[in-house]
Amino acid sequence: MSKWYERGAFYHIYPLGLVGAPKENRESSVTDQFGQLCEWISHIRSLGCNAIYIGPLFESSTHGYDTRDYRMVDRRLGDKEGFQEFVSRCHKAGIKVVVDGVFNHTGRDFFAFQDILNHGASSPYRDWYRGINFSCCSPLGDSFGYEAWQGHFELPCLNLFNPAVKQYLFDTIKFWIHTFDIDGIRLDCANVLDFGFMKELRQNSAGVKEDFWLMGEVIHGEYGRWVNQDILHSVTNYELHKSIYSGHNDHNYFEIAHNVKRLESIGSQLYTFVDNHDENRIASKLNNLQHLYPVYTLLFTLPGIPSIYYGSEFGMEGKRTNTDDSMLRPMVSISEIKELSCPLEDFISKLGHIHEQNPEFHGGRYQELLLTNRQYAFARFHENQAIITAVNNDESDAFAQVPCPCEGNTAVNLLNDEVFPVIDHKIGLTIPANRGVILKIMEG
Questions:
Q1: Is the peptide bond before 405 cis (omega within 30 degrees of 0)?
Q2: Phi-psi region for residue 348, left (φ > 0), alpha (ψ -120 to 50) or beta?
Q3: What share of residues in the chain are helix, strand, coil (percent, to 5)?
Q4: Which phi and psi (to 5°) does residue 140 adopt?
Q5: CA quadruple 168, 199, 190, 87: dihedral positive or negative?
Q6: In this predicted model, what pLDDT tens digit does every residue of 277-297 receive, in sequence order?
Q7: Within 13 Å and on the Cβ side, how many CA atoms surround 179?
Q8: Could you give the CA distance from residue 151 to residue 189 in angstroms, rounded to a whole number?
Q9: Which of the seven top EC classes does this enzyme belong to (predicted)?
Q10: Residue 138: its pLDDT value, please?
Q11: CA-CA distance, 10 to 97, in Å (whole number)?
């Protein structure tokens, strides 16, 4: 039996944006937004998604990644009981819940940093942060210097070599598992986290909850350094993300196929996406919006664990600026947006259910079958069964003879139930312009 995350299809929510929370956390009381978030659960399930990545949730001062309290739900979203109810409802709907773990740095309001501000070199927390130096001042006027994430001194870097810091964070994960029954954590900035820390984290979390999933945010690097039996279960597949949109904009399926082949040994474990809270919406990246259809077809059928970013299933656009991410993280009312008729939403829902119902996509072997600049076909396998995906980024329909990699005499397009004969181990078919087909090979 495969693990839940191997069968996973994620829905990604940036909750502070979705509910329209204040940009700065100056609230003295809790604002309950989990009732609003619960309204999304049935929609998420209708898309065929069986997991949610929601975060950040830890109490923070502004955007969620400047943690103020690791063991409090951000009061702009709600309280402990509200999130417990949200997770419970997700689980009842068959949806796993993964949250953000921001362990590379804290905000300046975190208790340990505040203690250093107040007590200086006599603080028992002076070794909780990297590069603490009491012989100089920080750019923010503090009486000491310290390392900050990418030079942002609002985000002092934790010292993950300090056993007390590590134990505090391991206990924090136990707290979130025991208190909220979460199913996994996405590690923010995993590309700069210490590998020894992540290895210990894997060992600790595995002992607390079976099948607890650890996924890391990694943009560049050899993903196999992180994704293995000792470190993490998965990382963000930024390589595929880039190749998917540029491969369509440039009419170059070779770029996508090369990327898939390069990552073939770990590809089915990687967290795949076409946009997220840090990246421009896919509808704002593509030169041709009709390419949304082959893009999402590839997302759900190539090796990987697919993820949809909230609102993008409705074709939502959004671009970041050099100083502002807010256009990527808008307030959205599910009841209002559902009133809009959107063919893309229906199409993604069909893809989600195809992914969920067919084990070929749950880690199944990948085989390239046909490749040109504008047409691309591949198979995914489960035991002796195969499903073929063929996509076309051209403005015109394209006829193709696609090799059939397994026994069978018919191929059924799971998108519309159209049947094609298999003749001499080949399937002759027309791939519609800017669309694709998903063919299940059948006997009879």
A1: no
A2: alpha
A3: 35, 25, 40
A4: -95, 10
A5: negative
A6: 999 999 999 999 999 999 999
A7: 15
A8: 14
A9: hydrolase
A10: 96
A11: 9
Contacts of residues 238-246 at CB distance under 8 Å and 24 or more positions apart, as own/partner, are: 239/263, 240/270, 240/272, 240/302, 240/304, 241/272, 241/273, 241/274, 241/275, 241/279, 244/274, 244/295, 244/298, 244/299, 245/274, 245/282, 245/285, 245/286, 245/295
330: three-class secondary structure by DSSP: coil
Distance separating alpha carbons of residues 203 and 298, to the nearest angstrom:
34
- Angle between the 195-206 and 163-180 helix axes, to the nearest 10 degrees? 40
Strand-strand pairing, 10-13 and 305-309: parallel
- Reported in sequence order, the residue ranges of 8-90 that DSSP labels E, i.e. its strands, are 10-13, 51-54, 58-60, 67-73
Q: What is the gyration radius of the CA atoms in the chain, in angstroms?
A: 23
Going by pLDDT thresholds of 50, 70 and 90, the confidence category of residue 307 is very high
Encoded amino acid at 145, one letter: G
Residue listed under structure tokens 């068959």: 94
Domains belonging to the chain, first-starting first, are 4-117+156-361 (3.20.20.80), 366-442 (2.60.40.1180)
DSSP bridge partners of 370 = 377
The C-alpha atoms of residue 138 and residue 117 are separated, in whole angstroms, by: 11
H or E stretch at 45: helix 41-46
Closest to 266 measured CA to CA, from 295, 308, 288, 237:
237
